[in-house]
Design goal:
Elements lengths: L9 H21 L6 E2 L5 H7 L5 E2 L1 H16 L20 H18 L12
Antiparallel strand pairs: 1-2
The protein binds zinc ion (ZN).
């Protein structure tokens, strides 16, 4: 059965990993008291990408990550530009703002913790 993950290439896989990592830092630091569970992955290709990330998220962040991954996979622009420089604004209202907040938070978290290596592919 064809899914949006048919077109999952190395570049998109990397972007998804970064997005997942950023959402998980945000959730861990900001939603400490919310009950979390393992991020559900139905697609086998996606599972291979995120397997090592062991994402444990609250329901809200799970939804956000799902939306972000779908948007990434469906981005019609190739190569995908940095989302913050893109004119298309494909994220649904609300999600876009939330993703920016997550990226800002986790980006500065990584800088504070000396993990600039993880910021190299920062494109959201
Ligand atoms: Zn959360």
């Amino acid at each position: 059965m064809p899914t949006i993950f048919e077109k999952l290439d190395d570049k998109k896989a990397k972007d998804i990993k970064v997005l997942g990592g950023f959402v998980s830092i945000y959730c861990r630091e900001n939603h400490r008291t919310v009950e979390k569970s393992t991020f559900p992955i139905k697609d086998e290709r996606l599972r291979q990408v995120l397997e090592k990330e062991k994402l444990v998220l609250c329901p809200e962040c799970s939804k956000l990550l799902n939306h972000g991954i779908a948007k990434l996979m469906l981005c019609p622009l190739d190569p995908k530009p940095m989302c913050k420089k893109c004119q298309t604004h494909c994220y649904a209202p609300g999600y876009r703002q939330k993703v920016r907040e997550v990226m800002r938070f986790s980006g500065s978290y990584l800088i504070k913790h000396g993990r600039l290596d993880l910021l190299i592919h920062y494109k959201f």
